[in-house]
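Most newcomers find our protein records easier to grasp once they have seen one. The structure tokens are whole numbers drawn from a learned vocabulary of backbone shapes. The record below serves as our worked example for the rest of this section.
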Amino acid sequence: MPPKPHQHGGQLQAACEHYRIPLSDWIDLSTGISPFTYPLPTVPEHCWQRLPEANDGLETAAASYYGSPFLLP
């Protein structure tokens, strides 16, 4: 029999069922996600409407931001 695939996440719903404890009584620390969100600007709608292109300037912008001419070693 092949090994079970790795499960990503805390499997909180499975724990609720196994221990018969309602979801509202759990504190899910499995991902480290804070309930306090970081303030982010609104993302313009056009950003969600296409995928990046090979030469769209992303690499140049990242290199400039991080102060390095190389993105990868």
Q: What stands out?
A: Residues 58-66 form the longest helix (9 residues). The mean pLDDT is 83. The chain is about 25% helix and 0% strand. The CA atoms of residues 34 and 65 lie 27 Å apart.
